[in-house]
Amino acid sequence: MDYMLFGFMALLLLYTVYRNVTLLKRYKQNKEYIECYKAILRGDENAYERISSFIDSQKDQEFASKARLLKLYVELDKKMPYQETLNAINFKDVFYKKDKLDKSKYALNVDLFVWIYIVMAKARQMSGFDVLNELYEKVRSLKEMDDCVEYCATEAVYNALCEKEDGGVKFFTDLLEGNYTNLRYDKNLIGLFKRFAAATLAYGGEPMEEYYKKDLHSFAETLIGKTYLETLGIYDKYLPLTENTETEE
Question: What pLDDT is stored for residue 1 in this prediction?
Answer without folding.
Answer: 52
